[in-house]
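Treating backbone geometry as a discrete language has practical consequences that deserve illustration. Part of our work consisted of pairing the sequence of a single chain with a tokenised description of its backbone. What the numbers capture is local backbone geometry rather than side-chain detail. For completeness, the protein is quoted in full, as a sequence line and a line of structure tokens:
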Amino acid sequence: MTTPRGAEPTNAWAVSLLFRVWSRVYDHPLPQRLYYRRIHHRIARRWRPSPGERVLDVGCGTGLFLKSLAADHGALPGLALTGLDLSEHMLEQARHAGAPASAAHPAPTFVQGSVYAMPFADGAFDVIVNTISCHFYLEQVRAFREIHRVLAPGGRFFCAAITFGPVGASVAGVAVYHPPRVLAAHLREAGFELVGEERVRPGSVLFEARRPLG
């Protein structure tokens, strides 16, 4: 049975607690340099940001990806960056050390909310990224449908996910790690067209999907 829109799945409390603790060490340079930032760079290289794009990072954590985009692509006029995360503790860290801002290049905006009921209008974003957090979406198709809703027709969705072997794995009702074929099926079921798939790290796959124009 699918949970009604606006309601949280059973792992919401556990995930919130996990990130409350994790927010204190999430920005440690070693895991960021060895893992997360390499994935961020791979997404940006595949995406090639363009001036004026409206960008949403779902599960943005402490906002490091958005801040690096603001720093690396500050010459792109009107690149609008928004981060959404369930954990207010993560967002406190994101807001504490914001990216430099100007009238032409405003700093990222950070919003607390759930991937299952995002506080954004239909088609509000041109590009959506999701980096190593979709394993917490126990109702993954439902989450991907909500991402599909807030993405503009023709917009692109970059989803980097942890995968484990041909059958996947689960962690005590808190997280589910699907194999690539299941992730791809979930994206298609949510209404996306798959544009590309590549292995970016051992055990990690990057999907590029698109919301159809029709």
